[in-house]
Amino acid sequence: MFDHITIQLLMGQLLIGLINGSFYAMLALGLAIIFGLMHVVNFAHGALYMLGAFVALILLNSFGVPYWGALMIAPIVVGAFGIVMERLILKPIQELDHLYSLLATFAAVLIIEGLMRLQFGASGLPYRSPLPGGVNLGFMFLPWYRAWVLVFSLIVCVAVWYLIEKTKLGAYLRAANERSEIVESFGINVPLMKSLTYGLGVALAALGGVLAAPIYQVSPSMGSNLMIVIFAVVVIGGMGSIIGAILTGYLIGIVEGLTKVFYPEGSHLAIFVIMILALILRPQGLFSAAEKSR
Fold first, then answer.
1. Predicted confidence band at 120 (pLDDT cuts at 50, 70, 90)?
2. Which residues constitute the domain of residue 84?
3. Is 136 part of any domain?
């Protein structure tokens, strides 16, 4: 049954799984920050990931800004757009049921994707890789750009985790979520802090979009294709769990990649089988207890 499996195939799919896991982790991290600190179910996260890729493409084609510049500019631009979106759409309904924020962000998805299709069409657009070539490891060929994505995304995830969990700013953010009146008594602008938190989560999504642009074609549907998986990652790791989003993102990517080796037909189902098992056996998430014990 497994006669066709070679070390090259196994390692190649493992690399693809790690690459996908990098994007799952980064998007789930942004989603977990927004939900954990604001209790907002941000259905627009995938559209903002897509918007990051399009901003990078526009910067390159219209302004001649290369990838390395877009890597810094696009998250700032989309993060600022997210702050405006939070102020105009989410803040007026923040006291209502979470379902209203989900519906509002879903409407934002339809508007953003519709505008991108109207302007750029439905088909994917290429984005040139900033790091062509690669290295032959003997058992597989490792493209330089994919190695860069793996290393950089891991650094970003660890840095954001440290910011939220280990710094005074992160403590203020968590406190603002639980007892906002106490944080305000210290002279801290809690509404502004919440807007910046939303902007940070959105910027992470946009950063993932810039990283994805040279690997996948830039298209209006690239975010919506990912969001179901990202929500599964967040549910498995624990809603609002920072470390859970990171570890589960990479884990799901690896599982998906290895499943394609041993049972390709079930690779897309494996994620949701794991989600169902997690909801049955540990509905609060795999990593939620660790964070609550802090």
1. very high
2. 23-121+145-292
3. no
What is the C-alpha separation between 123 and 114, in angstroms, rounded? Answer: 13
Predicted TM-score (pTM) of the model is: 0.92
CA angle 152, 31, 151 (to 5 degrees): 10
Q: How confident is the model at residue 2 (pLDDT cuts 50, 70, 90)?
A: low
Residue-wise pLDDT tens digits, 206-246: 999 999 999 988 999 999 878 889 999 999 999 888 999 99
Residue 182 has pLDDT above 80, yes or no: no
Q: Is residue 126 part of a domain?
A: no
Q: What integer pLDDT is reported at residue 13 of this predicted model? A: 86
CATH code at 228? 1.10.3470
Evaluate whether residue 16 is within a structural domain: no
